[in-house]
Design brief:
With 336 residues, the protein is mainly α. It has 3 domains: 96 residues, Tyrosine recombinase, N-terminal domain (DNA polymerase, domain 1, Orthogonal Bundle), CATH 1.10.150.130; 157 residues, hpI Integrase, Chain A (Orthogonal Bundle), CATH 1.10.443; 51 residues. It is 49% helix and 4% strand. Strands 1-2-3 form a 3-stranded antiparallel sheet. It has a two-stranded antiparallel ribbon with strand order 4-5. Strand 1 and strand 2 form a beta hairpin. Helix 2 packs across helix 4.
Length: 336
């Protein structure tokens, strides 16, 4: 095979451009971030042509990244697996030697090593939502946390909602993939769905729309459901709402970490994620899913509502203990 010279930066730009039409913007962002370490290593090693990369080089990069980043096995595996995909793509454009991707090694993980268990538990969720309902009623954070907890949707889906995706009569939300106007969703068209809402959730949305939301329009002329004074609320803004309002001190609970507000960096507006007790949107979603399962929702119903396969649901989202699962099965004993 005759190789054509290509420098690392150009290769990454071509790869990401090629992937844009087949994957979500969130995945593109993740790949850019992970592969950025490889590009940086190439720069340090003065590698200007990827034609010259060998399996030994890839091993040296792995050791360098492990030492430099202090990576956990899960993170190392994610980064090396992404590098393997990138190297395989380079093979397709004659940028590296054939089958080089087979020399990209990543750690083997034991059962559970790649499963994140951090979630917002139901007691804390209830306390946060009650506080917001009392002191921040129909505010943007109230709407964001209410939707993520009760609908189990991803933050990207909440970001993508338009005003007319909410049907107050039918008491439902419509999640739609609209990449051409800036709001792709995970799983694309297969992630599109209708989500039924309770009367309480609809009341919060109705009051948000009538009292708080304002007349917001985004850069494409669409009316976002969740907005700021500048238009559609960015996913970073929605994540910030989650991190800030899941800090115990934010709702008047004593800090479980023995910190005082004047001495805690996590109390500043942009540093809420540094609080050990704060929770990401994904942890809220995981908590909502586990809460539904604990209250007897059938897995197919949770799977459809949250847009996640039952296999992934079992492995990554269902945080019920084995005893909790047993007690739920007990109710079926009378049918034996």
């Amino acid at each position: 095979m005759s190789l054509e010279p290509i420098n690392p930066e150009s290769a990454l730009d071509l790869y990401l451009t090629d992937r844009e039409h087949e994957t979500s913007q969130a995945t593109i962002y993740s790949h850019r971030s992970r592969l950025g370490h490889f590009i940086r290593w190439c720069d340090q090693q003065r590698i200007t042509n990827l034609n010259d990369i060998t399996g030994r080089d890839l091993h040296y990069f792995r050791l360098w990244r492990r030492e430099e980043g202090g990576l956990k096995p899960v993170t190392e595996k994610t980064q090396m697996d992404t590098l393997r995909v990138f190297i395989r793509w380079l093979e397709s454009i004659e940028g590296v030697e054939r089958d080089l991707h087979t020399k990209v090694l990543s750690p083997d993980l034991g059962d559970g090593d790649n499963v994140r268990t951090v979630m917002l538990d139901s007691d804390r969720a209830e306390a946060i939502l009650n506080h917001l309902n009392k002191f921040e009623y129909a505010s943007r954070p109230h709407v964001v946390l209410t939707l993520l907890w009760h609908t189990m949707m991803r933050v990207g889906a909440a970001h993508a909602l338009d005003l007319d995706d909410y049907d107050p009569v039918d008491q439902s939300l419509r999640v739609v993939h609209r990449p051409e106007t800036g709001t792709p969703i995970k799983n694309k068209e297969s992630g599109q769905r209708f989500i039924a809402l309770s009367e309480d959730v609809c009341t919060v949305l109705d009051d948000w729309i009538e009292i708080t939301r304002g007349d917001a329009v985004d850069q494409y002329g669409r009316q976002p459901l969740i907005s700021t004074s500048k238009g559609r609320a960015h996913t970073t803004t929605l994540r910030g709402d989650c991190y800030r309002w899941t800090r115990p001190c934010e709702i008047g609970i004593e800090c479980p970490h023995g910190r005082t507000r004047p001495m805690c960096d996590a109390t500043s507006y942009d540093e809420a994620s540094k609080c050990p007790s704060s929770r990401s949107p994904h942890a809220i979603r995981r908590g909502g899913i586990t809460y539904a399962l604990n209250h007897g929702w059938p897995k197919p119903a949770v799977s459809d509502r949250a847009n996640v396969s039952e296999g992934v649901l079992d492995r990554h989202y269902d945080q019920r203990t084995e005893r909790e699962k047993m007690e739920q099965r007990r109710e079926y004993l009378d049918n034996l």
